[in-house]
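go over my protein:
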Amino acid sequence: MQKTGFKIVVMVLLVGLIATLAYMLVKGPEKKIGVLKKAPDFTLENLDGKTVTLADTAGKAKLVYFYFSYCPDVCPPTTYNLSKIQDALVKKGVFGTKTALLSITFDPTRDTPERLKEFSSRFHPDYKGWYFLRGDEAYTADLAKKFDVLVAKDPKTGNFTHTNLFLLVDGKGDVRTYYSGNDENIDIEGIANDLIQVSKES
């Protein structure tokens, strides 16, 4: 029964992802479409156990990404792409001051602070601007849902199925657009420029 239920959840996630990608295709390359919705506030912990809220990054344009470090497929390459976006923003002199990255795990049981320090170190993060955050599992799953990122846990393996998106949130706390983490032709410079343009509007 659990296996059947999980398959149904996965099918729902896939339908949601297809609908999301279809929306993005209809939307076209122009990403400056105004405000999509208000980003939900949150209270999470960083790698040092310090509390971080969305308000702590007020005034900065940021990308919000939900993931788990034991992900067998999409999360590591997507995190690598985020590191390339970080590098582009560093070169432009705006990372940590006007822009930021927020990676939020929905697997806190396995993603301990020690584990996340090891995982994040693979991507040469600048922790002044790249926050690796964690919180209660139910809380972060609900938070992901509020960001329109669907997450489902397989009770048999403990792994997760999720929509692989990262979202652009402006300095006022509004969601402006989102990007597919599965895009093989992801435009690193274009996304960096989106962040910079949005940061100037805040």
Remarks:
- The first helix runs from residue 2 to 27.
